[in-house]
Each structure stands twice: as structure tokens, then as C-alpha cells.
Amino acid sequence: MEKKHQINVLYIVFTVLAVLMLQNFLLSRSQVSVIPYSSFERELQQGNVSEVVVSENLIRGTFRNPVDGKSMFRTRRIEPEMADRLAKFDVRVLGETEDTWLTRLFSWIFPLLFFLVVWMFVIRKFAERQGLGEGYMSLGKSNAKIYVESDIKVTFKDVAGVDEAKTELIEIVDFLKDPARYGRLGGRIPKGVLLVGPPGTGKTLLARAVAGEAGVAFLSISGSEFVEMFVGLGAARVRDLFKQAREKVPCIIFIDELDALGRARGVGPLSGGHDEKEQTLNQLLAELDGFDPSDGLVLLAATNRPEILDPALLRAGRFDRQVLVDRPDKTGRVAILAIHLKKAKLASDVDADQIAALTPGFTGADLANLVNEATLLATRRNADAVAMEDFNQAVERIIAGLEKKNRLLNAFERRTIAFHEMGHAIVALCLPGSDKVHKVSIIPRGIGALGYTIQRPTEDRYLMSRKELENKMAVLMGGRAAESIVFKSFSTGAADDLARATEIARSMVTQYGMVESLGQVAYDKQPHSFLGQQQEMTWLERRYSEETAREIDCAVRALVQGAFDKAVGILTRNRATLETTATRLLETETLDEGDLAGLTTGLVRAEAAE
Ligand code: ADP
Ligand code: MG
Ligand code: ZN
């Protein structure tokens, strides 16, 4: 945006300069001679002036007989008395010098430029406040960046772990390959397909792969490009896009970030009367209704926030097919890794299965990034090939943020952290069905965490029992429980643990109906969990009474307290192990799975009567 303005200003300056110089040049070559006032006076006395035009500053006129080959002249006007006196002493009066193109530049170009700059500054501020992006300066001209690619090399082979989405899209590919044949049985291809899923799961990649597989042109544009300052421009862009597409059929139009333009009309605090967005959206709807897919034009769009889309967009005959592109499961991750590992030179110990096991929740983009990080690490240590250790480090790096070596903690803090982390670990080791403890460390990482315990699920989980949730909470409370047993006090280090435990407890009460006293009632809506983001609950009305709210709070508190007591119970029984392992952790700073197994042989796993 910055750059664009500078170019605009430069254009103006250059144009003005060019015009002035041209004018000057023409003037000097023309019939007009610029003469000193004294020469004018002389010619006048000699009777050589036939005609004059006197203006405020200038005297223009014509000679009877051309002087120096020029029949017209121009000179600066001088006050009469002054002229008289000067003439008396035979002074050569030069009046013209002031009026060069340079002075003109100073006298009016600069003020003009100044106002131009101020004006642009104001407009930019205004646009920023309105949340508008680029393009508000380009009045009337649609320079939306429509990327047209006709020879895409990406195919379905380059996308893995999203088999369901692929199956749905294969139909589109078949159709695009031969639109005429497809309609032979009267079948109707969906006009629009909406790819829905969290960022980085390969939506853009999939859309390109569809074009690549079908061998058709791919027109892509981002929804945010349609957001314009002036009413009607966005709509013009939509028209333009579809016009271009019609010239290129069979082809695919891909609108990325559809939510930027397809936001529900008239919802939310700020959208009242947002004419421009509404017009753009209406235009898109009109185009969607207007085109006939049997020509071979397919509209794909991607969003990670389908819930804010205008319902009109999702109606039959528009984006009537939604394809979920979710985070990959373990087999999916293995397949994605296989794609990205192909590009790297690998040592023999690298095992995609093992890496996939370490990375639950990673998206395709995360995995691509992981491979890249590992390659960089291997390059840094001058290795011939990327080894498994590089991948382990890269995973840790990505998960916990970069190691902060320069962060110093005093001895007491370190002791507290060691006991806290061992608390988590021992509770996890004692409770059956908990995720394996992979590593305990008191090396501070990232911004927030002072130490960390990495637990890795042995498998991807989609369902959890009440028992498992309670155990998970107990593990989270283990850190604080250890602190309370050993130091008889609490530190601030457990804030995140508390928040997470409370979150689990709250979900158990309000979403999963796991507390008897409150019954099996869902009090809160389940957030769209695959999007990985919480909805703003403040928006939703509370649909239960004041008393229920109090009961929910009590139940949540009881659950968290129960988890804490459970953790305290386990740690008290294993006080000796806690001490030895924490002391060891202080020495070595990290303990991995093997170390822990050796140190915790004496662990009392049996749970007290419960
Ligand atoms: P999205 O559009 O969903 O945010 P992208 O398609 O832009 O995600 O993905 C970014 C990059 O991550 C891709 O270029 C690719 O390298 C990698 N990637 C993402 N998902 C996959 C996948 N399912 N298979 C292979 N690579 C993937
Ligand atoms: Mg994308
Ligand atoms: Zn903790």
C-alpha cells in the first residue's frame, strides 16, 4: 500500500515537471522572445511596437519589424515611475528572471503537492479505520488481482490426508474434463463447492489440484480483494471476474477467504448499513444464479469460518456443496509427510510413522513447516542428511517455541518448577490411560512456560470417557498439588494449568452432561471445534436460570477440587519418588521417557479406594 502511493505521487510530480519543461521549450522555440524591460522601452521609443496586452505582471505584444527573427515579445511589467527613473540612467532592466519554471514550481506545485499528501494521509487514516485494504485509491479502475493460471502442475497426488474431500472433488474433475458428456443423464453438477476447514489444511492446494487434474484454467482471487472503499467497485470486480471466466471455459473460479466478502448481512455490531459489502455480495449472488454450469464453469471457494457466511450463499443452487477439509489423522499425517519428505535428503533412521505419532493436531502446513525446520537444523550442524533427532528437535521447537537460553531463574524458582513439573509427570504415570509422558524439562521455553511436561497421546482420540477427563484434570492439577505438598504454598506458575482444568470441568458440566445433579442437559452450545477457535460466548444469550448458573459454578468447582485432591493423594503416596526425581531433574534439566522409567520403579500406582 505504501509503495503504491509513492508511485502515485511520483507520477504526478513527473507529469507536472514534464509539462513545464515542454512549455518552456516550446516557448523558447516559438515566435515569442522574452526581452528585458529596457529593450521593450527602447523598441517602444523607436516605434517598433504595434500592439500590447498589459496584464498585472506581464506585457505581451507584437513588433512591427521582427527583432532577432521573432515578431512577438513578452516582458515583465515595471511600475511607470520606476521605469522612468531607470530609463534616465540608461539601466538595462531585466524583469523576466523571476518567472522561470523553477519559481513556478515553488509557487504552486509545492503547495499542491502538500495538499495532495495531506489529503492522502487523511484518506488513508479513514480507510484504516474502516478496515479497508488496498485499492481505495484506484478510483473507478478495477485492479483486483485475479490470478489466471492455465497450466497447473499440482495434482491430487500432492494432497494427502484429505481423502473424503478428494472423493467429493473427483466428480468435479470428471465434469470439467468433459462437460458435455456429464449432463447426458440429466445430472446437475453443483455450481459452487465450498471448502471448509482450519487454516493450513490444504484448501488452496486442493482447489489448485482440481484444476490441475482436469487440465483447465484456474482463476483465483481472495475475498478480501473485493473489499472496496467506494460503493459499487466490489460489485464491478465480481462482474469482471465472471466475465473473464466465461471467456476461458472450461475453468475454475476460486475465491479464497470467502468470509471476507460473504459475511452475513446485518449481523454483528459494526455491519449496520455496510452498503458496499452488501452490494458486492448481492452481485456475487446474482452471478452465481446467472451462470450455467453446463458450460464448464465451476466455482470453488474456501473459508475457515463457515458460520459467519451469509445463509443466502449456501442456498441450493449456489454453494450447495460443502466439503470438509479437516486436520489429518495419524495415517493422513504419514501420507502428508511422505509427500514433503520426498524433497529432503533423509538419514536411514527417519521414520514417518514416528514423526506422525509425535504430531497430533498438526495440519498439512505445519507438517511442511516441520520438515523444513528439520532440514534447516541438519544444515546448521553440517550433516549429510536429515536425521530423526532433527525432527524431534523441530517438533519440540514448533510445539513449545524456541528455547530461551538467556532466561535466568533463581535457585528457589528452579526448585519450585522442578517439583511442579514432576508433579504433573508422576500423576500422569500413576493414572491408567493417561497420555505417555514423553519428556519433562525445566528449561524455559517460549514466552509463558517456565518448564514443561510433554505428554503424547498414543493414538488420536475422538471420544473420551468421564474417567479419562477426570484423570486429565488430575494431571493438570498435579503441578500445583506438588507445590502445595512440598512448599505448603502456591505459586503463580499454575495459572495455565488451572485454566485448562477449569475448561475441561466446565465442558463436562455444560456440554457433556456428566454431572448427575445437573442432569444430562447441554447448557452451552458446543463450539465448532474443528475450527480450533472458541466462539465468543458473550454474544450468546444464557439459556438457563440464575440458580442453574450457580449450580454449574459449584459443580465446576467441585470437579476441579476433586482433581486436585486426587493429585495430592497420589503425590503424598509417592512423596519419596517425587523428591528423588525432582532433585534429579534439577541436575539434568530434562528427563526423557527412559530416565523416568528408571527413576520411578517404586511408584505406588494403586489408587486409593474410589
Ligand atoms: P489452506 O488454504 O487450507 O490454508 P494451503 O493449501 O495454503 O492451506 O496449504 C499450505 C501448504 O501446506 C501447502 O502449500 C502444502 O505445502 C502444505 N499442505 C497443506 N495441506 C496439505 C495436504 N493435505 N497434503 C500435502 N500438503 C499440504
Ligand atoms: Mg489458503
Ligand atoms: Zn503446570
CATH superfamily of the largest domain: Peptidase M41
In CATH terms, what is the architecture of the largest domain? Answer: Up-down Bundle
Give the count of structural domains: 5
Shape verdict = elongated
Helix content: 40-55%
Number of strands: 13
Distance between the termini: 65 Å
| Range of strand content | 5-15%
Structural class comes to: alpha/beta
Distinct ligands: adenosine-5'-diphosphate, magnesium ion, zinc ion
Gyration radius over CA: 38 Å
Low-pLDDT stretches = 133-142, 402-408, 528-539
Question: What order do the strands of the largest sheet run in, or round the barrel if closed?
Answer: 5-7-8-9-6-10
Remind me, CATH topology of the largest domain?
Answer: Methane Monooxygenase Hydroxylase, Chain G, domain 1
- Overall CATH class of the largest domain: Mainly Alpha
Largest sheet: 6 strands, mixed
Mean pLDDT: 80
Number of helices: 20
Please tag this protein with its features.
610 residues; 5 domains; binds adenosine-5'-diphosphate; Signal recognition particle alu RNA binding heterodimer, srp9/1; 6-stranded mixed beta sheet; 4-stranded mixed beta sheet; alpha/beta; Rossmann fold; binds magnesium ion; binds zinc ion
Description:
The structure is a single chain. Strands 5-7-8-9-6-10 form a six-stranded mixed β-sheet, sandwiched between helices. It has a four-stranded mixed β-sheet with strand order 1-4-3-2. The radius of gyration is 38 Å and the shape is elongated. It is built from 20 helices and 13 strands. The two termini are 65 Å apart. The longest helix is centred in the N-terminal third of the chain and has 29 residues, at 101-129. It has helices at 2-29, 37-45, 80-88, 101-129, 163-177, 179-182, 203-214, 233-247, 259-262, 275-290, 330-341, 352-358, 364-380, 388-400, 411-430, 466-487, 495-510, 546-573, 575-588, 593-599, and strands spanning 32-34, 49-54, 58-67, 70-76, 147-149, 192-196, 217-222, 251-256, 297-303, 321-324, 436-441, 452-456, 590-592. Mean pLDDT is 80; it is low at 133-142, 402-408 and 528-539. It has 610 residues and is α/β, with parallel strands linked by helices. It has five domains: 9-87, Signal recognition particle alu RNA binding heterodimer, srp9/1, CATH 3.30.720; 101-138, no CATH class; 145-268 and 275-324, Rossmann fold; 330-400, Helicase, Ruva Protein, domain 3; 411-609, Peptidase M41 (Methane Monooxygenase Hydroxylase, Chain G, domain 1, Up-down Bundle), CATH 1.20.58.760. It binds adenosine-5'-diphosphate (ADP), magnesium ion and zinc ion.
